[in-house]
Amino acid sequence: MPELPEVEIIRQSLNKKIKQKKVLKVIIRNRNLRFKIPLNFESHLKEKKITKVERFSKYLILNISDNSFCMIHLGMSGTIHILDNKKLLKLTNTSFYNSPFLPKKHNHVEIIFNNFKIIYNDPRRFGFIQIIKNKEELKERFRHLGPEPFDVKFDIDYVYNYFKKRKKNIKNFLIDQNFVSGIGNIYASEILFLSKINPSTNANLLNKLECQKIIFYAKKVLLKAIEKGGSSIQNFTNTSGVEGNFQKNFNVYQREGLACKTIGCTDLITKNIISKRSTFFCNTCQK
DNA sequence: AAGAGGCCCTGATAGC
DNA sequence: TGCTATCAGGGCCTCT
Questions:
Q1: pLDDT tens digit string along A108-141?
Q2: Superfamily for domain range A4-141
Q3: Between the N and C ends of chain A, which has fewer C-beta atoms within 10 Å?
Q4: Which of A11, A17, A55, A58 is flagged as catalytic?
Protein backbone atom coordinates (compact mmCIF):
# COMPACT_ATOMS: atom_id res chain seq x y z
CA MET A 1 0.00 0.00 0.00
CA PRO A 2 2.27 2.74 -1.15
CA GLU A 3 1.39 6.06 0.44
CA LEU A 4 3.17 9.37 -0.12
CA PRO A 5 6.49 8.36 1.54
CA GLU A 6 6.82 5.13 -0.40
CA VAL A 7 5.98 6.84 -3.68
CA GLU A 8 8.56 9.54 -2.90
CA ILE A 9 11.24 6.89 -2.30
CA ILE A 10 10.41 5.33 -5.64
CA ARG A 11 10.45 8.73 -7.32
CA GLN A 12 13.92 9.48 -6.05
CA SER A 13 15.51 6.30 -7.31
CA LEU A 14 13.53 6.28 -10.53
CA ASN A 15 14.52 9.87 -11.27
CA LYS A 16 18.17 9.02 -10.76
CA LYS A 17 17.89 6.12 -13.15
CA ILE A 18 15.82 7.43 -16.05
CA LYS A 19 16.30 11.22 -16.04
CA GLN A 20 17.31 12.34 -19.57
CA LYS A 21 17.13 8.77 -20.83
CA LYS A 22 15.41 7.90 -24.08
CA VAL A 23 12.68 5.28 -24.27
CA LEU A 24 13.54 2.72 -26.94
CA LYS A 25 10.55 0.46 -26.67
CA VAL A 26 7.45 -0.23 -24.61
CA ILE A 27 5.96 -3.66 -24.04
CA ILE A 28 2.48 -4.09 -22.57
CA ARG A 29 1.36 -7.53 -21.51
CA ASN A 30 -1.89 -6.55 -19.89
CA ARG A 31 -3.70 -3.29 -20.58
CA ASN A 32 -6.43 -3.96 -18.05
CA LEU A 33 -5.24 -2.03 -15.04
CA ARG A 34 -7.61 0.14 -13.01
CA PHE A 35 -8.09 2.00 -16.28
CA LYS A 36 -7.33 0.44 -19.63
CA ILE A 37 -3.98 1.53 -21.05
CA PRO A 38 -4.76 3.21 -24.40
CA LEU A 39 -3.55 1.59 -27.61
CA ASN A 40 -1.33 4.54 -28.48
CA PHE A 41 0.58 4.38 -25.20
CA GLU A 42 3.60 2.62 -26.70
CA SER A 43 3.96 4.94 -29.67
CA HIS A 44 3.50 7.97 -27.46
CA LEU A 45 6.54 7.11 -25.36
CA LYS A 46 8.76 5.59 -28.00
CA GLU A 47 11.88 7.56 -28.96
CA LYS A 48 11.11 10.24 -26.38
CA LYS A 49 13.18 11.31 -23.42
CA ILE A 50 12.05 11.24 -19.81
CA THR A 51 13.22 14.65 -18.65
CA LYS A 52 12.55 14.04 -14.95
CA VAL A 53 10.35 12.12 -12.52
CA GLU A 54 8.12 14.13 -10.22
CA ARG A 55 5.48 13.21 -7.68
CA PHE A 56 2.25 14.62 -6.38
CA SER A 57 0.48 12.86 -3.55
CA LYS A 58 0.66 9.15 -4.39
CA TYR A 59 1.12 9.76 -8.12
CA LEU A 60 4.39 9.42 -10.01
CA ILE A 61 4.70 11.88 -12.88
CA LEU A 62 7.17 11.10 -15.63
CA ASN A 63 7.87 14.29 -17.55
CA ILE A 64 8.21 13.55 -21.27
CA SER A 65 10.35 15.60 -23.64
CA ASP A 66 7.30 16.67 -25.69
CA ASN A 67 5.85 18.38 -22.57
CA SER A 68 3.37 15.60 -21.94
CA PHE A 69 3.32 13.40 -18.83
CA CYS A 70 3.10 9.74 -18.00
CA MET A 71 1.27 9.36 -14.73
CA ILE A 72 1.66 6.19 -12.68
CA HIS A 73 -0.38 5.22 -9.65
CA LEU A 74 0.64 2.04 -7.84
CA GLY A 75 -2.75 1.33 -6.34
CA MET A 76 -2.37 -1.15 -3.54
CA SER A 77 0.00 -3.75 -4.87
CA GLY A 78 1.94 -1.99 -7.63
CA THR A 79 5.73 -2.19 -7.67
CA ILE A 80 8.36 -0.86 -10.02
CA HIS A 81 11.50 -2.83 -10.72
CA ILE A 82 14.59 -1.96 -12.67
CA LEU A 83 16.07 -4.79 -14.64
CA ASP A 84 19.62 -3.81 -15.40
CA ASN A 85 21.86 -5.72 -17.72
CA LYS A 86 23.52 -7.16 -14.66
CA LYS A 87 21.38 -6.66 -11.60
CA LEU A 88 17.78 -6.35 -10.59
CA LEU A 89 16.75 -3.44 -8.45
CA LYS A 90 13.43 -3.33 -6.69
CA LEU A 91 12.25 0.19 -6.11
CA THR A 92 9.39 -0.49 -3.77
CA ASN A 93 8.92 -2.84 -0.91
CA THR A 94 5.26 -2.38 -0.36
CA SER A 95 3.86 -5.23 -2.38
CA PHE A 96 2.74 -8.51 -0.97
CA TYR A 97 5.59 -10.22 -2.72
CA ASN A 98 8.20 -11.60 -0.42
CA SER A 99 10.79 -12.22 -3.06
CA PRO A 100 13.48 -9.65 -3.63
CA PHE A 101 13.58 -10.91 -7.20
CA LEU A 102 11.35 -9.96 -10.05
CA PRO A 103 8.01 -11.72 -9.72
CA LYS A 104 7.17 -13.93 -12.66
CA LYS A 105 3.50 -13.03 -12.75
CA HIS A 106 1.81 -9.67 -13.28
CA ASN A 107 4.61 -7.83 -15.06
CA HIS A 108 2.14 -5.74 -17.03
CA VAL A 109 4.30 -2.99 -18.51
CA GLU A 110 7.95 -2.73 -19.51
CA ILE A 111 9.61 0.51 -20.55
CA ILE A 112 12.90 -0.28 -22.21
CA PHE A 113 15.91 2.05 -22.29
CA ASN A 114 19.36 1.58 -23.74
CA ASN A 115 20.80 -0.93 -21.29
CA PHE A 116 18.07 -1.44 -18.73
CA LYS A 117 14.31 -1.53 -18.43
CA ILE A 118 11.74 -0.59 -15.83
CA ILE A 119 8.93 -3.02 -15.10
CA TYR A 120 5.52 -2.26 -13.67
CA ASN A 121 4.21 -5.21 -11.66
CA ASP A 122 0.79 -5.18 -10.03
CA PRO A 123 -1.00 -8.36 -8.88
CA ARG A 124 -4.28 -6.69 -7.99
CA ARG A 125 -4.28 -4.21 -10.86
CA PHE A 126 -5.65 -1.40 -8.72
CA GLY A 127 -2.94 0.84 -10.11
CA PHE A 128 -2.96 2.65 -13.42
CA ILE A 129 -0.80 4.33 -16.03
CA GLN A 130 -2.07 7.28 -18.02
CA ILE A 131 -0.78 9.74 -20.57
CA ILE A 132 -1.55 13.36 -19.73
CA LYS A 133 -1.24 15.61 -22.77
CA ASN A 134 -0.04 18.83 -21.15
CA LYS A 135 0.25 20.91 -17.98
CA GLU A 136 -3.33 22.14 -18.13
CA GLU A 137 -4.67 18.62 -18.35
CA LEU A 138 -2.45 17.57 -15.46
CA LYS A 139 -3.76 20.41 -13.35
CA GLU A 140 -7.31 19.41 -14.17
CA ARG A 141 -6.56 15.78 -13.35
CA PHE A 142 -5.43 16.77 -9.85
CA ARG A 143 -8.05 19.45 -9.31
CA HIS A 144 -10.11 17.43 -6.85
CA LEU A 145 -7.12 16.64 -4.62
CA GLY A 146 -6.50 18.55 -1.41
CA PRO A 147 -3.08 19.93 -0.45
CA GLU A 148 -0.27 17.65 0.62
CA PRO A 149 0.52 17.81 4.35
CA PHE A 150 3.70 19.76 3.49
CA ASP A 151 1.82 22.41 1.54
CA VAL A 152 1.64 25.84 3.20
CA LYS A 153 -2.08 25.72 2.39
CA PHE A 154 -2.44 22.86 4.87
CA ASP A 155 -2.62 25.26 7.79
CA ILE A 156 -4.80 25.75 10.84
CA ASP A 157 -7.38 27.93 9.10
CA TYR A 158 -7.82 25.44 6.28
CA VAL A 159 -8.10 22.41 8.59
CA TYR A 160 -10.26 23.99 11.29
CA ASN A 161 -12.69 25.56 8.83
CA TYR A 162 -12.86 22.39 6.76
CA PHE A 163 -13.85 20.33 9.78
CA LYS A 164 -16.24 22.91 11.18
CA LYS A 165 -18.77 22.56 8.40
CA ARG A 166 -18.57 18.81 8.00
CA LYS A 167 -19.74 15.78 9.91
CA LYS A 168 -17.46 12.79 9.67
CA ASN A 169 -14.93 11.14 11.96
CA ILE A 170 -11.33 12.33 11.86
CA LYS A 171 -9.92 9.01 10.61
CA ASN A 172 -12.08 9.24 7.51
CA PHE A 173 -10.87 12.75 6.80
CA LEU A 174 -7.21 11.84 7.03
CA ILE A 175 -7.58 9.24 4.28
CA ASP A 176 -9.91 11.49 2.26
CA GLN A 177 -7.77 12.77 -0.63
CA ASN A 178 -10.13 15.68 -1.19
CA PHE A 179 -9.18 17.04 2.22
CA VAL A 180 -5.48 16.20 2.32
CA SER A 181 -3.63 14.12 -0.25
CA GLY A 182 -0.97 11.50 0.26
CA ILE A 183 -2.07 9.91 3.53
CA GLY A 184 -3.39 6.35 3.44
CA ASN A 185 -4.65 3.88 5.97
CA ILE A 186 -1.31 3.15 7.64
CA TYR A 187 -0.14 6.69 8.31
CA ALA A 188 -3.63 7.87 9.30
CA SER A 189 -3.56 5.60 12.36
CA GLU A 190 -0.01 6.65 13.19
CA ILE A 191 -0.78 10.38 12.94
CA LEU A 192 -3.80 10.06 15.23
CA PHE A 193 -1.85 8.10 17.81
CA LEU A 194 0.82 10.80 18.04
CA SER A 195 -1.86 13.48 18.14
CA LYS A 196 -3.58 11.59 20.99
CA ILE A 197 -6.92 11.77 19.21
CA ASN A 198 -9.37 8.89 19.04
CA PRO A 199 -10.00 7.95 15.38
CA SER A 200 -13.77 7.88 15.90
CA THR A 201 -13.91 11.49 17.08
CA ASN A 202 -16.20 13.65 15.03
CA ALA A 203 -13.91 16.10 13.24
CA ASN A 204 -16.11 19.10 13.92
CA LEU A 205 -15.57 18.56 17.65
CA LEU A 206 -11.80 19.04 17.41
CA ASN A 207 -10.46 22.24 18.88
CA LYS A 208 -7.72 24.35 17.32
CA LEU A 209 -4.97 22.77 19.38
CA GLU A 210 -6.00 19.31 18.23
CA CYS A 211 -6.09 20.49 14.62
CA GLN A 212 -2.58 21.91 15.09
CA LYS A 213 -1.40 18.54 16.37
CA ILE A 214 -2.80 16.77 13.33
CA ILE A 215 -1.04 19.23 11.00
CA PHE A 216 2.22 18.89 12.93
CA TYR A 217 2.24 15.09 13.15
CA ALA A 218 1.05 14.56 9.58
CA LYS A 219 4.18 16.36 8.37
CA LYS A 220 6.39 14.73 10.97
CA VAL A 221 5.29 11.13 10.36
CA LEU A 222 5.51 11.40 6.57
CA LEU A 223 8.93 13.09 6.66
CA LYS A 224 10.24 10.52 9.10
CA ALA A 225 8.92 7.72 6.89
CA ILE A 226 10.66 9.20 3.85
CA GLU A 227 13.84 9.51 5.87
CA LYS A 228 13.55 5.83 6.81
CA GLY A 229 13.00 4.77 3.21
CA GLY A 230 9.27 4.12 3.57
CA SER A 231 7.50 1.19 5.16
CA SER A 232 7.84 -2.46 4.26
CA ILE A 233 4.77 -4.37 5.25
CA GLN A 234 6.40 -7.76 4.82
CA ASN A 235 9.56 -8.53 6.73
CA PHE A 236 11.84 -9.66 3.99
CA THR A 237 15.47 -8.94 3.38
CA ASN A 238 16.79 -7.77 0.09
CA THR A 239 20.29 -7.40 -1.19
CA SER A 240 19.64 -4.35 -3.33
CA GLY A 241 19.61 -2.07 -0.30
CA VAL A 242 16.41 -0.18 -1.06
CA GLU A 243 14.32 -1.56 1.75
CA GLY A 244 12.19 0.62 3.97
CA ASN A 245 12.49 0.64 7.72
CA PHE A 246 9.63 2.76 8.91
CA GLN A 247 7.47 -0.24 9.82
CA LYS A 248 9.75 -0.65 12.84
CA ASN A 249 8.58 2.77 13.97
CA PHE A 250 4.87 1.89 13.83
CA ASN A 251 3.21 2.73 17.11
CA VAL A 252 -0.16 1.21 16.34
CA TYR A 253 -0.55 -0.08 12.79
CA GLN A 254 -0.84 -3.88 12.73
CA ARG A 255 -0.11 -3.95 16.47
CA GLU A 256 -3.51 -5.17 17.67
CA GLY A 257 -3.23 -6.78 21.12
CA LEU A 258 0.35 -5.58 21.63
CA ALA A 259 1.40 -3.19 24.37
CA CYS A 260 0.96 0.53 23.81
CA LYS A 261 4.38 2.13 23.39
CA THR A 262 3.56 5.17 25.52
CA ILE A 263 5.73 5.13 28.63
CA GLY A 264 3.56 4.39 31.65
CA CYS A 265 0.59 3.17 29.61
CA THR A 266 -0.43 -0.42 30.32
CA ASP A 267 -3.16 -0.66 27.69
CA LEU A 268 -3.08 -2.80 24.56
CA ILE A 269 -3.55 -1.56 21.01
CA THR A 270 -7.10 -1.95 19.72
CA LYS A 271 -8.27 -2.55 16.16
CA ASN A 272 -11.58 -1.12 15.00
CA ILE A 273 -13.14 -1.16 11.57
CA ILE A 274 -14.04 2.38 10.56
CA SER A 275 -15.81 2.63 7.20
CA LYS A 276 -14.54 -0.82 6.24
CA ARG A 277 -10.92 0.13 6.91
CA SER A 278 -8.96 -1.32 9.81
CA THR A 279 -7.95 1.35 12.28
CA PHE A 280 -5.46 0.90 15.12
CA PHE A 281 -5.31 2.99 18.27
CA CYS A 282 -4.79 3.03 22.03
CA ASN A 283 -8.02 3.46 23.94
CA THR A 284 -6.20 5.02 26.90
CA CYS A 285 -3.89 7.46 25.10
CA GLN A 286 -6.44 8.47 22.49
CA LYS A 287 -9.53 9.76 24.22
C1' DA B 1 -23.04 19.16 -1.51
C1' DA B 2 -21.66 15.95 1.82
C1' DG B 3 -21.28 11.39 2.93
C1' DA B 4 -22.26 6.46 2.70
C1' DG B 5 -21.57 2.40 0.24
C1' DG B 6 -20.21 -0.47 -3.79
C1' DC B 7 -16.91 -2.02 -7.00
C1' DC B 8 -12.56 -3.36 -9.07
C1' DC B 9 -8.68 -7.29 -8.18
C1' DT B 10 -5.44 -11.33 -6.41
C1' DG B 11 -3.18 -13.64 -2.77
C1' DA B 12 -2.88 -14.99 2.02
C1' DT B 13 -5.15 -17.04 5.54
C1' DA B 14 -8.92 -19.15 8.33
C1' DG B 15 -12.33 -22.55 8.92
C1' DC B 16 -14.67 -26.72 7.90
C1' DT C 1 -6.41 -32.33 1.29
C1' DG C 2 -9.22 -29.19 -0.95
C1' DC C 3 -12.83 -26.36 -1.00
C1' DT C 4 -15.11 -21.76 0.18
C1' DA C 5 -15.30 -17.43 2.73
C1' DT C 6 -13.06 -13.44 4.30
C1' DC C 7 -9.89 -9.77 4.42
C1' DA C 8 -6.47 -6.41 2.70
C1' DG C 9 -7.67 -1.05 0.76
C1' DG C 10 -6.97 3.42 -3.07
C1' DG C 11 -9.62 5.72 -6.13
C1' DC C 12 -13.67 6.46 -8.52
C1' DC C 13 -18.47 5.99 -9.14
C1' DT C 14 -23.46 6.14 -7.94
C1' DC C 15 -27.13 7.12 -4.95
C1' DT C 16 -29.43 9.63 -1.35
A1: 999 999 989 999 999 999 999 999 999 999 999 9
A2: MutM-like, N-terminal (3.20.190.10)
A3: C
A4: A58
